[in-house]
């Protein structure tokens, strides 16, 4: 899990740094005014959309492991990953554009959001196969949950 965390966080921060570099280089003269015209009001909806997308994918993985296993191995799984990455990229670009006049605020905001993206990706990737690997759910834990769930029900 440690190596996966290092790779996911490094790749996400590299992506955020690339977006920061491109937007700050482009934010000159007329483009700087155009970037500043991007409304800060669009950031919360982008963040909410990202959170909903991550939430729906995570719930789907946990609700039906057999379907999730097939989806991860198929193109549908790749479309979901592409969707998360594209939504995260859009939010990073919007953050960079909104804060293009203040480089420190831009860097801080992008780093914070990139950390959220990386953590979301890491958790989904780590738990996409909940019964395999270092952080897997063991059968004895599932038996306890099943036993405790059936003792409280009336026949």
Structure, described:
By secondary structure, the protein is mainly alpha-helical. 81% of the residues lie in helices and 0% in strands. The protein has 7 helices and no strands. Helix 3 packs across helix 4 and helix 4 (65-73) packs across helix 5. The chain is elongated, with a radius of gyration of 20 Å. 21% of the residues are buried.
Tell me the distance between the termini.
Answer: 42 Å
Helicity, as a percent range: over 70%
Output mean pLDDT.
76
Q: Unreliable stretches, pLDDT < 50, 5 or more residues?
A: none
Assembly form of the protein: single chain
Order of helices and strands: HHHHHHH
Q: What structural class should be given to the helix and strand makeup? A: mainly alpha
Number of helices: 7
Question: How many beta-strand elements?
Answer: 0
Global geometry: elongated
